[in-house]
Amino acid sequence: MRRELPMILIRVIVGLVFSIEGILKFVRPEELGTGRFAAIGLPFPHLLAPFVGGVEIICGAAVLFNFFAGDATLALLVVILTALVTTKLPILLGSRFGPFSPPALHHYGWLSFFHEARTDLSMLFALVAILIDSGMQFRRRRWYQGN
Predict the structure, then answer these.
(1) Phi/psi zone of residue 94: left (φ > 0), alpha (ψ -120 to 50 degrees), beta?
(2) For residues 105 and 95, what is the distance between their CA atoms, to the nearest angstrom?
(3) b/e for 2-22, b at 16 or more Cβ within 10 A?
(4) At a CB cut-off of 8 Å and minimum separation 6, what does 21 contact?
(5) Per-residue confidence at 139, pLDDT binned at 50, 70, 90?
(6) I want to staple 53 with a disulfide (CB 3.0 to 4.6 A). Which of 22, 32, 91, 103 is the partner?
(7) Which domain holds residue 132?
């Protein structure tokens, strides 16, 4: 049990953070759901925000209870990488990145990026740790192996 405790703690915080963020997309849609997705510039915010919220709730719970945690982690990696690209990359660049504009900050660049992205980066690395711990194996199928 003692050797498993660090990964259990990582699963608990990752599962709680994503589940709560997913719930908040429904509870506070203008601030964290549809309104935020529209402000960021994501397409179809009225469809995308509830979908992402649902994914966060379901996959966060799966990680929390270690039920298909590897599969859930892959979905959450897509969510967190999208969040980093759409909201934090413009801060790093200090300018627009495609349709995504940086928020009004006093400073831009590496230090501001790391400051603003600290939670996202923590979740990203925790998700990678869960994925590694889950034992998921990625193999390319060779054409000569057949089915």
Answers:
(1) left
(2) 11
(3) eeeeebeebbeebbebbbebb
(4) 32, 53, 56, 60
(5) low
(6) 22
(7) 5-145
Tokens of 83: 């969040």
The two tokens of residue 92 are 């790093």
Rounded CA separation 74/140 (Å): 17
Could you give the number of structural domains in the chain?
1
The tokens for 67 are 């039920």
- List the alpha helices (DSSP H) in 4-142: 5-27, 29-32, 34-40, 45-64, 69-83, 89-93, 110-116, 118-133
Q: How many residues does the chain have?
A: 147
The larger pLDDT score, comparing residue 147 to residue 108, is at: 108
Structure tokens at 73: 């982690």
- pLDDT of residue 13 exceeding 70, the answer is yes
Q: What SS3 state is found at 147?
A: coil
- Give residue for tokens 């929390």: 64
pLDDT one-digit tens code per residue, 62-84: 999 999 999 999 999 999 999 99
As a whole number of Å, the CA-based R_g of the chain is 17
- Bridge partners of 71, per DSSP, are none
Query: pTM for the full model?
Result: 0.87
